[in-house]
Amino acid sequence: NEIKELKRLHSDALSLREKKIEELQMEVRMMGQKLSSSDKATNSSEKEIRDKENEITKLKQEIESLTERIRVMLAEMDKKQAEVEKMEKDKADKEKIFESKLSHHLKKIQDYEARISGYEGTINELNEKITSLMNSHAQEGSKGKDAVKQLEYE
């Protein structure tokens, strides 16, 4: 937007310059016509013409100076725009890398969770077998004690 505004200002300045130059040239021509039609051309009229010509020259120089300043500003803005675009691209690249790494780590976490779930299932099965074996041993032990008591009783 700033670039567009500067370009518009530059265009306006050039238009204004051309218009002012045309106006001043018209005035110079009109003064010249007055002088040629009148034999009573005075030094003051000639001085006015020189003053107007000097004013035209000064305006041309001012416009050239402004035009150069605008060119420099536009070049700086183009450079800054390129820097902003590069930073945005770098940011997007870093976001892609981050998302890729995050996805990779989430996959690893899911793999670990699946392995842990498998280990928990194995642990539960082993606990059940241990409990079953302990119950079985307790029953066997109880049968053995009962048999010993029965033998002692007989």
Automatic annotation (TrEMBL):
<protein>
    <recommendedName>
        <fullName>ODAD1 central coiled coil region domain-containing protein</fullName>
    </recommendedName>
</protein>
<feature type="compositionally biased region" description="Basic and acidic residues">
    <location>
        <begin position="140"/>
        <end position="154"/>
    </location>
</feature>
<feature type="compositionally biased region" description="Polar residues">
    <location>
        <begin position="34"/>
        <end position="44"/>
    </location>
</feature>
<feature type="region of interest" description="Disordered">
    <location>
        <begin position="134"/>
        <end position="154"/>
    </location>
</feature>
<keyword id="KW-0175">Coiled coil</keyword>
<feature type="domain" description="ODAD1 central coiled coil region">
    <location>
        <begin position="56"/>
        <end position="137"/>
    </location>
</feature>
<feature type="region of interest" description="Disordered">
    <location>
        <begin position="30"/>
        <end position="53"/>
    </location>
</feature>
<dbReference type="Pfam" id="PF21773">
    <property type="entry name" value="ODAD1_CC"/>
</dbReference>
<dbReference type="InterPro" id="IPR049258">
    <property type="entry name" value="ODAD1_CC"/>
</dbReference>
